[in-house]
Specification:
4 helices, 81% helix, transmembrane, mainly alpha, membrane, coiled coil
Length: 140
């Protein structure tokens, strides 16, 4: 028996063994492993790009959440300034600003690095005015 016969015969035996192992109810699936390895080799660049896109998307999502929080903060401070200057508001306007306060406070709780304490007193003042308006039914 020469080397060529051994390799060809061994290759056939290996092929048959892998097929039997794949069919048998064993957790080792050699064909799946081979196909997965080939797929990763062929699609490696695409997989890397998809992973980069996922990271970029997550970063964009975080940036958008921060912009939303900053917008809430601006609306809260503007509303607070209006109350200081005697501008009256509807109940719906109060309800919206209270939702902004809740969203802003939740974002600040979830992101301790985010600059806060610029709206703490304003938020408290808005809530106090809201409670007073609710008690007296004195909305615009």
């Amino acid at each position: 028996m020469n080397l060529e016969e051994i390799l060809l015969g061994g290759g056939g035996v290996l092929l048959a063994a892998m097929t039997l192992i794949q069919v048998a109810p064993i957790k080792v699936n050699p064909w799946s492993k081979v196909a997965k390895a080939i797929g990763r080799a062929i699609n490696g660049e695409v997989i890397a790009k998809v992973e980069q896109l996922e990271r970029d998307l997550e970063e964009m999502k975080e940036d958008q959440e921060e912009r939303d929080a900053i917008s809430c903060r601006s609306r809260i401070l503007h509303f607070g300034d209006e109350t200081i200057h005697g501008v009256r508001h509807t109940k719906e306007h109060f309800d919206q600003i209270l939702r902004d306060i809740t969203s802003y406070e939740q974002y600040c709780d979830d992101h301790p690095h985010f600059e806060n304490n610029t709206t703490v007193l304003t938020s408290r003042r808005i809530k106090d005015i809201y409670e007073e308006c609710m008690a007296t039914a004195d909305f615009l």
